Amino acid sequence: MSLFGNRHPGWSQGWAPGRTPIQPLTFVLIHGAWADVSFWEGIAAELRRMGHTVYVPEFPGHGTDSHNTNITHSTISQSIAQDIAAHNLYDIVLVGHSFGGTVVQKVAELVPERIRRLVFWNAFVLKDGQSAAEELPPEARAMFEQIRLQSGNDTIMLPFPFFRELFVNLADIGQAKQTYERITPEPAKPLFEKLDLKKFYRLSTPRSYVNLTEDHVMPFGNPNYGWHPHMSNRLGLYRFIQGSGDHMTTAKTDPAMIAMKLYEAGRD
């Protein structure tokens, strides 16, 4: 499944009173774990309203393909790279949220000539040879491993208390329950797969990191874990953009703000 908008030539005038003209860009938006393309609906609509082209590809094991649990990280990254090539997309701003950061890293290796800039939004930036699971605190990783073993189909479904306190901490209880009802078990293999990222760390593609300060999925204040600066600094030279919000609620409650942060991260 994918969503497209129309690209407007030149510079878009008057997106908001008092703002400088918007530079039209082509965004490819990659969601994270326990999500699908619907995560981006409001943000994609705002980016299109600003004059950008937006592409939101779904990857195997998610959305309408959520019954397919036997997938690998390579399956996901190859699928996204193939979609980008199939739609003849060039000069793209490739955005990854959360686990989607690991997908951005591998897709950047596969189609570097098509990418203008990489944007990581509260996203994993893994070291060469590392898995996403290795970045989790020991208690969370042990919980995930136990749920995986007990699932019967090698998936991980987040317990509601864990989801409520860490993923949607700014939501009221009604919003939290509504969001939780829409998530499905996540295929476990890609989360535990160690990635060869030697090529990624040789790329010179410009990159940015967007950090929402109330995102509590990763621990605050622990130098061994966390989004920023623990993982963001692995990007080397990068643009840093910061805003207020949590991991999943703010995408729904303030998509215009997120869209503007992504634009600030992706523009020249």
Characterization of the model:
This protein has a single domain, classed as Alpha/Beta hydrolase fold, catalytic domain (Rossmann fold), CATH 3.40.50. The model is unreliable at 1-15 (pLDDT under 50). The strands form two sheets. A six-stranded parallel β-sheet has the order 2-1-3-4-7-8, sandwiched between helices. A two-stranded antiparallel ribbon has the order 5-6. It is built from ten helices and eight strands. Strand 3 (92-98), helix 3 (100-110) and strand 4 form a beta-alpha-beta unit. The protein starts with 25 loop residues before the first strand and ends with a helix. It is an alpha/beta fold. The radius of gyration is 18 Å and the shape is globular.
Low-pLDDT regions: 1-15
Biggest β-sheet: strands ordered side by side in the sheet: 2-1-3-4-7-8
Structural class by sheet pairing and helices? alpha/beta
Largest sheet data: 6 strands, parallel
Q: What's the total helix number?
A: 10
CATH topology: Rossmann fold
CATH superfamily: Alpha/Beta hydrolase fold, catalytic domain
Based on DSSP secondary structure assignment, what is the total number of beta strands? 8
Which class in CATH terms?
Alpha Beta
**Strand content bin:** 5-15%
Mean pLDDT: 93
The percentage helix is 25-40%
Can you tell me the CATH architecture?
A: 3-Layer(aba) Sandwich
Q: SSE order, as H and E?
A: EHEHEHEHEHHEHEHEHH
Shape: globular
Alpha-carbon distance between the two ends: 29 Å
